[in-house]
Structure formats: structure tokens, C-alpha cells
């Protein structure tokens, strides 16, 4: 198999990459609908993130979790709650003793 070598400027290379990515995305199967379609009431959302409803309202007031207001009710998308939970995730460092902070 013979390899083709060509020289391209940075802008030409960017255009080639953009075209290749665009073509790949256009040919990719449609993704399933995200879990965003599922929503929770304030109590359900608070239970989901293991907080009280008042603690959840404070988190919303700080702008950490998005919500929607319908009448007097706040509604939360499951995806937003999962994202907030995952933001608090800590990775264990190699030099850290995982049991040290449990003592």
C-alpha cells in the first residue's frame, strides 16, 4: 500500500478536520433522547440528592442547580441533579491513603 503525503497549512488542516468531523456526525445514528425529559418535584429532587427540601432551595438560590418554576412549584430535570452530584466527585490521588480520611 502506497502512502500519500501532502503538505497543508494550519487553516487547510483545520478545514479538513472540520469536514471529516461534520461528515462523521451527519452519518452517525441519532442519539437516544437524554434523561433530561424526566423531571422531579422539589421533594423528589431533594430525596434524590439526599438533602432536605429547604437545603435544595438554598442550593437553587445560589445558582448551583437549575430549576423551572410552574406556579408555586419548582421542577428539576434529573440530568441537572446528576450533573450537580458529579461535580462534587473527588478523585483519589496515588499518594493519598484512601482510608486516611475515613478515620
Automatic annotation (TrEMBL):
Stored InterPro entries: HTH_17 (IPR041657)
Pfam families according to UniProt: HTH_17 (PF12728)
Domain Helix-turn-helix: 39-88
Source taxon at top rank: Bacteria
Name used for this protein in its record: DNA binding domain-containing protein, excisionase family
